[in-house]
Each structure stands twice: as structure tokens, then as C-alpha cells.
Amino acid sequence: MAGQGPPPNESRQRSRDEVVRELVKSDGKIGGFPLPDDVLPPIKIDGKVQFTPDGEIMREEWHPQTVRWWNNWRESPQATRMLTGPDWDYLLDTALLHHQMWETGGKNSERAGEIRLRVATFGATYADRLRLKYEIEMPTEEFDVGIAGQNVSSMDDARRKRIANGGA
Q1: Which residues pair with residue 135 across a beta bridge?
Q2: Is 135 helix (H, G, I), strand (E, B) or coil?
Q3: Which DSSP symbol is given to 112?
Q4: What is the tally of helices (H) and strands (E) in the chain?
């Protein structure tokens, strides 16, 4: 699959070539909309669509990784640049690809390339932001390392010494 080549350098050799980067700053608001359930495929058993007791079509639930991914986009500074409905619709189409990739346990990994290309247009990685000439303003508050809800153990000084001494 073709890529876009190496990302541009942060600084240029000649001062006249210095790139002016747009500062992208979070406004503290959540952008877009919650993931809609009505875009997911209906649940079928023996080829028959299943219905709730209320008569509504039963649909798949979003994969938890996709929900996390979507919420990260909604809370990101890049969300301040997604100003129109079509921006969020394009990202929703990408979320559906993301969901399908995770639901199959990696069997649909060919979708990963398409997802990578799509999120690059919004500045997903540092290299993407260099290409877009975006600079993300770092928040002033301190954040914990790791993902909320995960048990991240600390390596205190005593444990470091034990490891350095071969576990003794």
C-alpha cells in the first residue's frame, strides 16, 4: 500500500523555509455526537432478523475499542477542526470500519490501512499533524499515565534494585 512518504521535518535548515504551524487547542467541549446504534447491522439468527419485545430491530453493539476510539476523537483538540456534519459523518464511516475490524478479531485487517488513511486526514499521529501543519497545544494540567481502569504497577526504588541485581 502506498503511503505519503516521510513526514516533514519539524524545523528547516533555512530560516526563510520555516513552516508556520497552526496551533490546535482544545476548547474543553466534546465534539460531534455519540455513536448512533442504528447504523450497526441487525442481529440475525438462522438468517432471520431479531426484534426486541417492543418490536424494534435488535442491532449489534459497538465494540468497546471503537467506543473508546470515538470518544477520544470527540475529546481531542482535533475535534475543534471538525466543524461540519460531513466531517463527523466521514469519521462515523471510519468508526464502522474500525468496529468491523475489531469485531472480527483481526481477520479483517485489510481495513486497517483504510482506517489509517482516513484518520490521517484529521491528524491522528504526530507525523500526520506535521503534514497538516498542526501543532497541538499541550494541556496545562497533569494527566495520569495509562488508561483509566487499568492496573498500572509502580516500579519503586527497591523493586528496581532487585531487578538490576538479577531478581535477588
Answers
A1: 23
A2: strand
A3: H
A4: 5, 4
pLDDT band at 151 (very low <50, low <70, confident <90, very high): very low
Q: Which residues are paired to 44 by β-bridges?
A: 49
CA-based nearest residue to 75, from 41, 28, 129: 28
Find, among 66, 88, 68, 76, the residue nearest to 29 by Cα: 76
Q: Say if residue 71's pLDDT is above 80.
A: yes
Pick 64 or 20 by higher pLDDT.
64
CA separation (Å) from 2 to 58, 73, 158, 167?
A: 39, 25, 49, 46
CA torsion angle 33 119 95 63 (round to 10): -110
Across 43-133, where does the E strand assignment appear?
44-45, 48-49
Return the sign of the alpha-carbon dihedral for residues 131, 132, 133, 137.
negative
Tell me how far apart the alpha carbons of residues 117 and 110 are, in angstroms, rounded to a whole number: 12
pTM, two decimals, is 0.70
> Coil, helix or strand for 122?
coil
User: What value, to the nearest 5°, has the Cα angle with vertex 113 and ends 108 and 116?
Assistant: 120
